[in-house]
Design goal:
By secondary structure, this protein is an alpha/beta fold. The chain folds into 4 domains: about 280 residues, Rossmann fold, CATH 3.40.50; about 160 residues, Succinyl-CoA synthetase domains (Rossmann fold), CATH 3.40.50.261; about 80 residues, ATP-grasp fold, A domain (Dna Ligase, domain 1, 2-Layer Sandwich); about 120 residues, 2-Layer Sandwich (D-amino Acid Aminotransferase, Chain A, domain 1). Helices cover about 40% and strands about 20% of the residues. Strands 9-8-11-10-12-13-14 form a 7-stranded mixed sheet, sandwiched between helices. Helix 10 packs across helix 16 and helix 14 packs parallel to helix 15. The two termini are about 50 Å apart.
Length: about 725
């Protein structure tokens, strides 16, 4: 797919030797046709590989006309790629032999490492390989196919159709099956790489290569677990602006995540964080199923150009299927063109008098193949229409053969200058007559949802391109006193603590420029009365202050809406009693006194930042109370975030309309929320000692009335 953006120069040293090896050694090669070692040699030979093939087996001999060497050291040639097929207990010794030959890449097909708990053995392989300048693919894989070489160094299908879709898969069995399925679907591959345990080479390394590979138009990933999410995010940020990147990610459910972890030995990670960062923030196309991913890959690979706009039109011979397509378009983000005057002008000459020129354009069940051709041509000729969905239901007067001839002419022969997708629904003979065109590259589906889904994927990629911002102006730089924050952190470290007390958290908020209510720590009853009555004023909130009590509410350490001295004294006694009962040895510094805010004037939100185990520094936003606790209505982004990212986070949550004002309520100060998100993004990025910041609640007042960070919890990383 062509676009006007130049590809950035990405440094991927020597990885071309993995995809274009001049020599391959197969260690563990076998003359037994039932062994993997035979299958790999057989596939390499059958693929038409033009480089040197070196089977290795201590028994020597010959396999498929290739001399077998008793060791890799006996080969008088440089080795670009060594494929290891020996049992796990011999892999390290084999790696040592490869190092002596200065082998560049090692493909370890053997299983029995981190996926079954043998983590240390796998780490030793990586450590040794890096020390000796080698890169490892695997272990626990089926191999690699590259159309560029060409070479099929797998034990999967012997014959793989060449094309422009590159597949990276963490699952070996699914990957082999996808080779067969892509052949059935008429999808040609530029490469398919099995990454398995990803002990060294991972999807980020491979994406970097595919970005610059002219043979690859679409990148498709199957992922179970991610080890370096921050790097993957950075690579995808570049890749998705150049080529469509489709991702199938398993482990969406809790049970699925557990299964994925046991399968590959890597964590699936929180699925909502993955979706927010990988799909929403950096623009990868997340498919819900393998079939959906393959549909997208095939459709996107045949597109010559991006759409020139977002106006889509449906042409149908049935109202029902047209309504279904309308629903599907809304679901998948396809914008239907609604200028009725323009549509009437375009389609009246080609639509029966009893039809409809509204979108969907209905040529009715009386529509003939000739009318279909005229309607499709009218849509293709109009500069106001940027993409077309053609639907057809079987009718008694409808000739599938004649319609197939129209599709052949308009799509294959004339080659439309805008995206077109087809959906035809009917009996076996009806579909059979049309679906023969599918093998020729025509995007035809039975289900209108599949058709709309493909067009939706194209438009998501379209937005990745047109929404690309100027990097120089994309990021806001709020003023934050990092030195003052570090000073607080150093003081906490001196006391061997990992969490900040209230006064310390308030100092951090002040240094960050985040507004907080005036707060005072009273060390005795006299100070409690003084601050409540002479400084703050009733009503007040009282909270326990202790370095030994993090969760104040759990300890009974919070009292709200204290309106007079009697309530103040009772609350003081109750809080101290509850705190001592909760943790008898806790050192209590005092109680915090802060003014009680009228909650009817504000809306509670929660804004946070943390070091995610998979993606590194991230920020989070959601509405407070039940929305975050029960509904989990929150959004995440990887740091650093742009202002546009912060806006999208807020708009993404289901309860966003509440911030805009409903039932006569005034809109809230969304700008204040954006400002806090950007400030927390900068803190978590620059202050390496901080692991978690949670402000809950952040009170959001009416528009232009500001926000207040009421309760802030900050945790530090363990001492390094």
């Amino acid at each position: 797919m062509e676009n006007k953006y130049r590809m950035p120069k990405i440094n991927a040293p020597h990885i071309k030797h993995l995809f274009e090896p001049k020599s391959i050694a197969i260690i563990g090669a076998s003359s037994n046709q039932n062994k993997i070692g035979y299958k790999v040699v057989d596939n390499i030979v059958a693929s038409g590989y033009q480089g040197n093939i070196y089977p290795v087996n201590p028994k020597g001999g010959e396999i498929l006309g290739c001399k077998v060497y008793d060791s890799i050291e006996a080969i008088d040639d440089e080795i670009d790629l060594a494929t290891i097929c020996v049992p796990a207990k011999y892999v390290f010794d084999t790696l040592q032999s490869c190092a002596k030959k200065k082998t560049k890449f090692i493909s370890i097909i053997t299983s029995g490492f981190s996926e079954v708990g043998n983590i240390e053995e796998e780490e030793e392989l990586v450590k040794f390989a890096r020390k000796n300048g080698m890169r490892i693919l695997g272990p626990n894989i089926f191999g690699i196919f590259s159309a560029k070489a060409p070479v099929n160094a797998t034990f999967g299908y012997k014959h793989i159709e060449h094309g422009s879709v590159a597949i990276v898969t963490q699952s070996g069995a699914l990957g082999v099956a996808m080779i067969g399925k892509t052949a059935t679907e008429g999808i040609g591959l530029s490469a398919i790489v099995s990454v398995g345990n990803k002990c060294d080479i991972d999807e980020s390394d491979l994406i970097e290569y595919f970005i610059t590979d002219d043979n690859t138009k679409v990148i498709l990933l199957y992922i179970e677990g991610i080890k370096h999410g921050d790097r993957l995010t950075n690579v995808l940020e570049i890749a998705t602006k150049i080529k469509p990147v489709i991702i199938i990610k398993s482990g969406r459910s809790k049970r699925g995540a557990m299964a994925a972890a046991s399968h590959t030995g890597s964590l699936a990670g929180a699925d909502n964080v993955f979706t927010d960062i990988i799909a929403r923030q950096v623009g990868a196309l997340r498919a819900l199923s393998v079939q959906e991913a393959l549909n997208w890959a095939k459709f996107l690979a045949i597109q010559k150009n991006l759409p020139t706009g977002e106006n889509a039109v449906i042409v149908t011979n049935g109202g029902g299927i047209g309504v279904l397509a309308t629903d599907a378009c809304e679901l998948y983000g396809v914008t239907l063109y609604d200028d009725r005057d323009v549509l009437k002008k375009i389609f009246t000459p080609v639509t029966p008098s009893f039809g409809s020129t509204k979108n969907p354009v209905d040529i009715t069940g009386q529509g003939t193949s000739e009318i279909y051709e005229q309607a499709l041509q009218a849509a293709l000729d109009s500069p106001d229409i940027h993409s077309v969905i053609v639907l057809g239901c079987e009718t008694a007067i409808f000739s599938a053969d004649q319609l197939a001839a129209v599709v052949q002419k308009k799509y294959l022969d004339d080659k439309p200058n805008k995206p077109v997708v087809f959906s035809f629904f009917g009996g076996g003979e009806f579909e059979k007559g049309l679906f023969t065109l599918k093998s020729k590259g025509v995007p035809i589906f039975s289900d209108v949802y599949e058709a709309a889904s493909c067009l939706g994927a194209l438009y998501k990629h379209y937005h990745n391109i047109i929404d690309t911002e100027d990097e120089a102006s994309g990021f806001d730089e709020p003023e934050i006193n990092i030195a003052s924050i570090q000073e607080v952190i150093d003081e906490v470290r001196e006391e061997n603590r990992r969490f900040l007390l209230v006064p310390e958290a308030l100092r951090v908020m002040d240094a960050a420029g985040i507004p907080t209510p005036k707060s005072y720590v009273a060390k005795d009853l006299e100070e409690v009365i003084h601050y409540a009555e002479e400084v703050v004023g009733y009503p007040v909130v009282m909270k326990i202050v202790s370095k030994d009590i993090i969760h104040k509410s759990d300890a009974g350490g919070v009292a709200l809406n204290l309106e007079n001295r009697e309530e103040l004294l009772d609350a003081y006694e109750a809080i101290l009693t509850s705190a001592r009962k909760y943790k008898p040895d806790a050192k209590i510094e005092g109680v915090e006194i802060v003014r009680m805010i009228n909650m009817e004037e504000a809306m509670e939100t929660i804004i946070g930042a943390r070091i995610d185990n998979t993606f590194g520094p991230t920020v989070m936003f959601g509405l407070g109370g039940i929305y975050v606790e029960v509904l989990k209505d929150v959004a995440f982004r990887a740091v650093p975030v742009k202002r546009s990212d912060a806006i999208e986070m807020i708009q993404q949550i289901r309860s966003y309309p509440l911030l805009l004002g409903v039932r006569g309520e005034a809109a809230k100060d969304i700008g204040g929320c954006i400002d806090i998100i950007l400030r927390l993004s900068k803190i978590i990025q620059l202050c390496k000692d901080i692991s978690d910041i949670e402000i809950n609640p952040v009170l959001v007042f009416e528009q232009n009335q500001g926000v207040l960070a009421v309760d802030t919890r900050i945790l530090l990383n363990p001492q390094r």
